[in-house]
Amino acid sequence: MTVTLEPAIHGDRVSLLRVLGPAHVWALGVGIVLVGEFTGWNFAADKGGALAALIVCWVVGLLYTSVAMIDSEVTSTVAAAGGQYAQAKHIVGPLMAFNVALFLVFAYTMLEVSDAILLGDTIVAKAGVEGLTHNSFIAATIVVLAWLNYRGVLMTLNVNFVITAIAYISIVILFFSVSPWTQGAVLKLNELVTPGNALPYGWIGVIAAFQFGIWYYLGIEGTTQAAEEVRSPARSLPYGTMAGMITLLIAAAMTWYVCASMMPWEYLGITYYPLWDAGKLTGSPLLENLLFVATLLAALASANGCINDAARAWFSLGRDRYLPTWFSAVHPKYRTPYRSILFLLPIALAFAFIADLNQAITFSILSGVLQYTFMSINIVMFRKKWPLGSIRRGYTHPFHPIPAVVLFCLCVVTFFAIFLGFGSQLIAMVAFYFLISLWFHFYRYRFVRRGDQFTMPWPKPQGY
Amino acid sequence: MWTVLSYACWGISIVLALWMLYDWFKVDTTFSEEVLTSSREGELEAVSEKHRI
Question: Which residue windows are transmembrane per the record (chain B) (predicted)?
């Protein structure tokens, strides 16, 4: 379709552009997540062995399937930029919404930082040139993608669709290149994963592996940030999100099978490039180079989606006066939240230059799991306040409240796993959110126009 | 080659960052603050959703 880029001001208003379809929603969600198959998930093997990495693949898959179903129902009804922030505002209240928006901004900005560091490190590892540092590649990744986001959401997500698809196809090509139906030729799963070494640390190792199992799917909930820019939110968001989740479950299973069949768990658990290494181990230069390029593309797609999502969450905070309204400006020509994009750009650059990969990843995961915990409570309140039949839903998730209970329980296990590995960071982050909540409650909330922030034309909730 | 690519990355980053700053300045001096911050949440839904089941 053709989109005019002339200044588009309708009456006195300028708003985000509704141009996206289900494929863009898929590209946003899978684009953010797919990098987790190229690095991240494999650290679960270091925590609990190769079998633990497989167990968390499915159990955390259950967590994220619950996330995708719950998110699809609520966001097909609360179709606004900010995603889970707008949901929290309407269903729980302003303080929860403020916290959720910060979870979102932290999770996506730190993930963007991690992606940029990964991309820089991958290029430096490939180059093998003395004195070459990753800083220039990090800067280019963050600035070029911010520029792309600045110029418009349609091109941003078209690019994401193409590079995500290439990265995904590379996993499929690798899978079929190693004769997955034959053990012993290239794959040696029965030799590498034996009853003796499958769970080297027992079941506590499986629990510890949850922390990195999150990487198989971290960020799929980011699809909801596109709610205000899709042509048909009630249809596109559930369709794109659920299709994305199915895609990722398949990619995760293929990735584990190939990598665990080619590398011993001791190495798999510490390498930064499990799929690229698998490509090298096939002995094919073509596969090696394909997986190298795919690793870069997956990191780019993830960072691109993260800039999109973090900016929209920040923009929504400004629009409701939770932060200065200055952040809620929309570019009159490109129809993007350009000030939010520009504000977050130097923050991402600063973290990318001073933080290391592990710290950035941990902060991203922590914020993500806090958000998922909120979602399990949010859906119960949503169904209680507005039962089925009281408002129109684009999608109704089945078996309520089982997905909410499963999600909550798995979040508790994941918190415990994070506490085992990064206890001090967990406590520091919770303390940060507590202090910022006090600031919001006692100072910032006085600037909020309380009636204006609730925009959904819903009937009164039950019990009010 | 990699060193040249590294310098090219710095160059591209600086050029695009300057372009964004220029465009930001141009937009903010061309349009009023009221217009730029006039976006409202849920406007389309308010028109299209009647909530009659």
Answer: 7-25
Residues in A touching B20 (Cβ below 8 Å): 146-147, 150, 342, 345
What DSSP string describes A40-104? Answer: TTTHHHHHH-HHHHHHHHHHHHHHHHHHHHHHHHHHTTS--TTTHHHHHHHHT-HHHHHHHHHHH
> Model's pTM, two decimal places?
0.92
Confirm whether A124 is domain-assigned: yes
ipTM of the complex in this document = 0.88
Whether A6 is in a domain gets the answer no
pLDDT band at A363 (very low <50, low <70, confident <90, very high): confident
Please tell me the distance from the alpha carbon of residue A358 to that of residue A353, in angstroms, as a whole number.
13
Residue B25: count other Cβ atoms within 10 Å of its Cβ: 10
The segment with the largest mean pLDDT, out of A82-86, A182-186, A308-312, A365-369, is A308-312
State which residues form the domain around A221.
27-447
Contacts of B9 in chain A (CB under 8 A): 136-137, 139-140
Amino acid at A96: M
Mean pLDDT over the full length of chain A: 92
Whether A5 is in a domain gets the answer no
| Partner B, chain A 349-388, Cβ-Cβ below 8 Å | none
Nearest-CB residue to B3 (from A79, A129, A318): A129
Say yes or no: A419 contacts chain B, CB-CB below 8 A: no
The torsion angles phi and psi of A420, rounded to 5 degrees, stand at -65, -40
Mark which residues 308-327 of A lie under 8 Å from B by CB. 316, 318-320, 325-326
Burial of A454: CB neighbours in 10 Å, binned 0-12, 13-18, 19+: middle
φ and ψ at residue A391, rounded to 5 degrees: -140, 160
Please confirm whether the linkage preceding A264 is cis (ω < 30° from 0): no
| pLDDT at residue B48 greater than cutoff 60 | no
Partners of residue A391 on adjacent β-strands: A388
Pair A351, A110: CB distance under 8 Å: yes
User: What is the model's pLDDT at position A3?
Assistant: 43
Using CA atoms, how far apart are residues A314 and A326, in angstroms rounded to an integer? 11
Mutate to test the interface with A, among B4, B13, B16, B24 (most CBs of A within 10 A): B13
Q: Is residue A1 part of a domain?
A: no
pLDDT of residue A8: 53
pLDDT, tens only, A133-151? 999 999 999 999 999 999 9
Q: What is the pLDDT of residues A446-463, one digit of tens each?
A: 999 888 888 888 888 988
Domains of chain A: total: 1
Task: Report the length, in residues, of chain A.
Answer: 464
| CATH number of A294's domain | 1.20.1740.10
pLDDT of residue A342 exceeding 50: yes
